[in-house]
TrEMBL record:
It comes from Scophthalmus maximus (Turbot). One of its GO terms (molecular function) is acid phosphatase activity. InterPro entries: LMW_PTPase (IPR050438), Ptyr_pPase (IPR023485), Ptyr_pPase_sf (IPR036196), Tyr_Pase_low_mol_wt_mml (IPR002115), Tyr_phospatase_low_mol_wt (IPR017867). The keyword Cytoplasm applies. This is Low molecular weight phosphotyrosine protein phosphatase. It holds the Pfam family LMWPc.
Amino acid sequence: MAGSSSKSVLFVCLGNICRSPIAEAVFRKMATEAGVVDKWRIDSAATSTYEIGNPPDHRGQACMKRHSVPMRHEARQVTKDDFMSFEYILCMDESNLSELNRKAKSVKNYQAKIELLGSYDPQKQRIIQDPYYGSDEDFGKVYEQCVRCCKAFLEANS
């Protein structure tokens, strides 16, 4: 459980191989550089079962490497426990949001605040589009959005 001294965030997208592992890696690096990573529990997960056990998309990995952001993750699906043990569940688009709100209804007295990661974007781009069928450029755009949003989210929670 998240204690008073620890904060926690779970980043969520459809498959947990593109957007959410990028957000997780970006946030972990920022928290590390800010000297607060020990205070955070940071993870990512999927609303779907499509990619369980798979590593992040190679294009996302290449993008992270270009920006010197370490990324290691194995895709998993959101569990009922996540709604109790994470303070924040931040997702990428409206379909993730409605799926998470639907799942949360089956968890009695759940604790998590379920929000769009994009709601923290100073440039007000609320939706982080899935780059899976896109190009390297689309992964770059996801990275930039995650950087802006994670920075604002960290500032709001420090």
